[in-house]
Amino acid sequence: MHYLCFIFGLLFIVFIILLLHIKNLPNTYRVECALRTSVPAETLYNYIKDFENWSEWNTLIKEDSTMKLQFKNIGTENPSYSWDGKNGIGSMETISVQAPYILNQKMTFGGFKSSNVQWNIKNDSDSLKWVMEDNMNFFAKAFKVFKGSMEKSIGLNYQKGLENIDRVLSDRLNDYRFEIKGSSIIQNNFIYT
């Protein structure tokens, strides 16, 4: 009987320590991914702002063939879309822009509080950065302890998404690029009548 009390007492102490650990975790999280790119800033901005393009590069959408997407206000300053897929429901809305360098968005996933998402495109367009940050409640902290950090759970998807954006847009731009091979002289013989 004493062993049983000892085991329950030990489990209770471990449980209390775990609760205190979760409570003392930072109240905020920040996931940031960046990529160097040669795609012009305005092209990046217009492509990212149009949610109808997201199915071409967003890894979560690409991996879930059953996901249903609904778009609203496409072509306006504040477009939005929502999804319903195997990993749950959610929505994304553009709340402000500073064309063509910054997009601020709010993302809601399931029943969780909205998170702030920001896209930063450098003025000289040599890098694209995707940032998600917000406050965490106790349950989000517990999720972090048991499932890993936000950086691990969504950071890889963000990085793959950035690489997909760069690949898709670079391929499209390469379709319209041409190379001058050699040169020739063309005489300027114009006849005006």
Write up what this structure looks like.
It is a single chain. The mean pLDDT is 85. It contains six helices and seven strands. It is of the alpha+beta class. It is 39% helix and 28% strand. 16% of the residues are buried. It starts with a helix and ends in an 18-residue tail after the last helix. It has a seven-stranded antiparallel sheet with strand order 1-7-6-5-4-3-2. The protein has one domain (25-174): 2-Layer Sandwich (Alpha-D-Glucose-1,6-Bisphosphate, Chain A, domain 4), CATH 3.30.530.20.
Going by CATH, what is the homologous superfamily? START domain
Sequence of strands across the biggest β-sheet:
1-7-6-5-4-3-2
Under the CATH scheme, the architecture is 2-Layer Sandwich
Overall outline:
elongated
Share of helical residues: 25-40%
N→C terminal distance: 115 Å
Question: Which tags fit this structure?
Answer:
6 helices, 28% strand, Alpha-D-Glucose-1,6-Bisphosphate, Chain A, domain 4, elongated, 7-stranded antiparallel beta sheet, alpha+beta, 193 residues
Topology record:
Elements: H1 2-23, E1 28-36, H2 41-49, H3 54-57, H4 59-63, E2 68-72, E3 80-85, E4 88-98, E5 102-109, E6 115-121, E7 127-135, H5 138-147, H6 150-175
Antiparallel strand pairs: 1-7, 2-3, 3-4, 4-5, 5-6, 6-7
In short:
It contains six helices and seven strands. It is of the alpha+beta class.
